[in-house]
């Protein structure tokens, strides 16, 4: 048995220390170094490649299986000979960037590639027949690019293909007859296709072919007209049965125009067509020159302000032709991209959806809070996220983006990470992980009917410790105030020590205090402007949350004084002052019994210190964490030092909640 344990331990250590082959690591770095990018991805040589943002390896870290870099601001051509070296790659997602040029040819040599997502870029040229080499491919998305030419018949070689999206390009010609038995999703809408829809594709809905004005046949509403006119019937007796014209009348009509007249008409029509073509070419060339001269300098300057990381070359500089290509490509997409781009932050690049897919997701209202309404969104690809629709945002686009980018760097098991955001004039959205266990508020104050499980003392202590640790991390590691500590923002997880605070550090995005509602009894009395919380006001809010755990009362429903103000701390103080301390504690908690009375009184003392009227009399959050750890030391809860140092590699997964 001991030998077996040693063997398993050795295998585990070997697995953790394993790295993909050096050629794969070098290929990834060469790809990133050769492609300008707006966001720093922290692909450091000192960290394992399998821990890099967007990189997923197999169970033994022996090869790269997935590379997902959607919406990270990649600009330019994909360097040849880079991604094609990832021989074990199964999923490649570079969607919603600004990559241009031909679709990289070396991608068609990846034998195990199953999903290729390149939609929402600026790729041009045709789809080469080599696409048929991807025999394992199941999902191919090339939507919303500048691809042209004919849709290749070689796609019939992809026998495992389940979804094919080519919409929003400039494909022309007729549709090939694709006989792919597993194909479930097909879309070629808004191209320049013509002719009849093949019978093998007529099973897809009309929306799959919309925007191609010269397509006809089922499932579209307009049938195809015969390519050749119906043959005339035999000569008739003059009645013209069958729509035919008597031969004698045809001869008369033919004699009405002489050969010279026909030649003159032909020459005139040809000259007019040639003149129109010359005028069109001249106007187009002049328009392009004006657009290029006016936009290149402006967009190049904008690219510099956005902080693009240039590709490394032998001389350390971009060539003039590459710079011009980048400027022109950015000019073509900058305005639309800024208006409709879903931006991922932190480790949100692991998600593989864009704004269009998010808006198509089925949504369920989770609740309405002080910052806006939260929705549970279930995406087509299976991932579940929370989308917060913010209200009364006062920050500019730049302020909003800079602030959310900085919050994306906050990673702690007791803080719910931000994964992405969307900013437009009319809508401001935040994307976070979805935690199905719900909030502390729902657990404490939800329906108390049959089947509801009462929250025991150990669970409440762990929730208090999780909240304190989360706020302490913001204060000590990032010098940030939470600004919105309350039970509805403490989300529970199956791991009782990993409850996570949400909606942190958003206060500076909103309108001043006069436009903001009271935070339900959690706000410190000295806090006049909700946009300027302090560390001490966070401590006050923590104290109110502790009292909520002890009393089972919501701060918004504790008691009402003569002025109509709700104040749970003052109610507790009045009860304690009358030496009725036992009356403070939640009836359900007392009913459970046990030997936790001393711990309950100890946490009550910590809470009362936190809600002291004078800010200077309140303890720091680091001290609050230590005091709660000392109270719960008999329950096996680890100290701050142990919990921070012993989480290991699984901490990233636990902090994420629902894995994308």
TrEMBL record:
<feature type="domain" description="Protein kinase">
    <location>
        <begin position="360"/>
        <end position="638"/>
    </location>
</feature>
<keyword id="KW-0732">Signal</keyword>
<feature type="region of interest" description="Disordered">
    <location>
        <begin position="227"/>
        <end position="251"/>
    </location>
</feature>
<keyword id="KW-0067">ATP-binding</keyword>
<dbReference type="InterPro" id="IPR011009">
    <property type="entry name" value="Kinase-like_dom_sf"/>
</dbReference>
<dbReference type="InterPro" id="IPR000719">
    <property type="entry name" value="Prot_kinase_dom"/>
</dbReference>
<dbReference type="InterPro" id="IPR001245">
    <property type="entry name" value="Ser-Thr/Tyr_kinase_cat_dom"/>
</dbReference>
<dbReference type="GO" id="GO:0005524">
    <property type="term" value="F:ATP binding"/>
</dbReference>
<dbReference type="Pfam" id="PF08263">
    <property type="entry name" value="LRRNT_2"/>
</dbReference>
<dbReference type="InterPro" id="IPR013210">
    <property type="entry name" value="LRR_N_plant-typ"/>
</dbReference>
<feature type="transmembrane region" description="Helical">
    <location>
        <begin position="260"/>
        <end position="282"/>
    </location>
</feature>
<keyword id="KW-0677">Repeat</keyword>
<keyword id="KW-0325">Glycoprotein</keyword>
<feature type="compositionally biased region" description="Basic and acidic residues">
    <location>
        <begin position="649"/>
        <end position="660"/>
    </location>
</feature>
<keyword id="KW-0812">Transmembrane</keyword>
<dbReference type="GO" id="GO:0016020">
    <property type="term" value="C:membrane"/>
</dbReference>
<keyword id="KW-0472">Membrane</keyword>
<dbReference type="InterPro" id="IPR032675">
    <property type="entry name" value="LRR_dom_sf"/>
</dbReference>
<keyword id="KW-0433">Leucine-rich repeat</keyword>
<keyword id="KW-0547">Nucleotide-binding</keyword>
<dbReference type="InterPro" id="IPR003591">
    <property type="entry name" value="Leu-rich_rpt_typical-subtyp"/>
</dbReference>
<dbReference type="Pfam" id="PF07714">
    <property type="entry name" value="PK_Tyr_Ser-Thr"/>
</dbReference>
<protein>
    <recommendedName>
        <fullName>Protein kinase domain-containing protein</fullName>
    </recommendedName>
</protein>
<dbReference type="InterPro" id="IPR050994">
    <property type="entry name" value="At_inactive_RLKs"/>
</dbReference>
<dbReference type="Pfam" id="PF13855">
    <property type="entry name" value="LRR_8"/>
</dbReference>
<feature type="signal peptide">
    <location>
        <begin position="1"/>
        <end position="18"/>
    </location>
</feature>
<keyword id="KW-1133">Transmembrane helix</keyword>
<feature type="region of interest" description="Disordered">
    <location>
        <begin position="630"/>
        <end position="660"/>
    </location>
</feature>
<dbReference type="GO" id="GO:0004672">
    <property type="term" value="F:protein kinase activity"/>
</dbReference>
<dbReference type="InterPro" id="IPR001611">
    <property type="entry name" value="Leu-rich_rpt"/>
</dbReference>
<dbReference type="Pfam" id="PF00560">
    <property type="entry name" value="LRR_1"/>
</dbReference>
């Amino acid at each position: 048995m001991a030998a077996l344990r040693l063997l398993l331990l050795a295998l585990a250590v070997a697995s953790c220390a394993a790295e993909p082959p050096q050629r794969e690591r070098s290929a990834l770095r060469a790809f990133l170094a050769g492609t300008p990018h707006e966001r720093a991805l922290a692909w450091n040589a000192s960290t394992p490649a399998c821990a890099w943002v967007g990189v997923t390896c197999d169970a033994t870290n022996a090869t790269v299986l997935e590379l997902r870099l959607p919406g990270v601001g990649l600009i330019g051509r994909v360097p040849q000979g880079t991604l094609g070296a990832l021989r074990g790659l199964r999923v490649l997602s570079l969607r919603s960037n600004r990559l241009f040029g031909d679709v990289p040819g070396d991608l068609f040599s990846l034998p195990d590639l199953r999903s290729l997502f390149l939609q929402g870029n600026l790729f041009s040229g045709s789809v080469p027949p080599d696409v048929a080499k991807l025999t394992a491919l199941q999902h191919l998305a090339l939507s919303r690019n500048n691809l042209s030419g004919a849709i290749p018949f070689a796609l019939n070689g992809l026998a495992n293909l389940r979804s094919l999206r080519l919409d929003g390009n400039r494909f022309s010609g007729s549709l090939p007859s694709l006989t792919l038995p597993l194909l479930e999703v097909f879309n070629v809408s808004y191209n320049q296709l013509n002719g009849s829809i093949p019978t093998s594709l007529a099973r897809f809905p009309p929306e799959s072919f919309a925007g191609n004005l010269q397509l006809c046949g089922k499932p579209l509403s307009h049938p195809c007209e015969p390519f050749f006119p119906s043959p005339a019937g035999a000569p008739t007796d003059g009645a013209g049965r069958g729509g035919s014209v008597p031969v004698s009348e045809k001869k008369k009509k033919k004699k009405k125009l002489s050969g010279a007249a026909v030649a003159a008409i032909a020459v005139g029509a040809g000259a007019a067509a040639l003149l129109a073509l010359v005028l069109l070419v001249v106007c187009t060339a002049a328009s392009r020159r004006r657009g290029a001269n006016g936009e290149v300098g402006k967009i190049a300057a904008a690219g510099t302000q956005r902080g693009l990381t240039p590709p490394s070359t032998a001389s350390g500089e971009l060539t003039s032709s590459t710079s011009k290509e980048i400027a022109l490509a950015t000019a073509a997409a900058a305005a639309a991209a800024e208006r409709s781009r879903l931006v991922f932050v932190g480790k949100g690049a692991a998600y593989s959806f864009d704004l269009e897919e998010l808006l198509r997701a089925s949504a369920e209202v989770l609740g309405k809070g002080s910052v806006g309404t939260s929705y549970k969104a279930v995406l087509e690809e299976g991932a579940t996220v929370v989308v917060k629709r913010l209200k009364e945002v006062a920050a500019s686009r730049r302020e909003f983006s800079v602030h959310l980018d900085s919050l994306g760097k906050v990673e702690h098991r007791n803080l719910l990470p931000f994964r992405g955001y969307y900013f437009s004039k009319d809508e401001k959205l935040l994307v976070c992980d979805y935690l199905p266990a719900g909030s502390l508020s729902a657990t404490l104050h939800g329906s108390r009917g049959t089947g509801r499980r009462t929250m025991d003392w150990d669970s409440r202590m762990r929730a208090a410790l999780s909240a304190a640790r989360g706020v302490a991390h913001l204060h000590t590691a990032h010098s940030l105030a939470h600004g919105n500590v309350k039970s509805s923002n403490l989300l529970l997880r199956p791991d009782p020590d990993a409850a996570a605070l949400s909606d942190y550090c958003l206060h500076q995005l909103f309108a001043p205090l006069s436009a903001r509602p009271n935070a339900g009894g959690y706000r410190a009395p000295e806090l006049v402007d909700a946009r300027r919380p302090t560390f001490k006001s966070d401590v006050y809010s923590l104290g109110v949350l502790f009292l909520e755990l002890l009393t089972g009362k919501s701060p918004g429903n504790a008691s009402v004084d003569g002025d109509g103000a709700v104040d749970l701390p003052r109610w507790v103080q009045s009860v304690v002052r009358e030496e009725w301390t036992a009356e403070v504690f939640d009836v359900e908690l007392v009913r459970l019994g046990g030997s936790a009375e001393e711990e309950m009184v100890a946490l009550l003392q910590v809470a009362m210190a936190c809600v002291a009227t004078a800010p200077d009399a309140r303890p720091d959050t680091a001290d609050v964490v230590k005091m709660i750890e000392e109270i719960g030391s008999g329950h096996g809860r680890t100290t701050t030092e142990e919990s921070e140092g012993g989480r290991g590699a699984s901490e990233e997964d636990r902090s994420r909640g629902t894995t994308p």
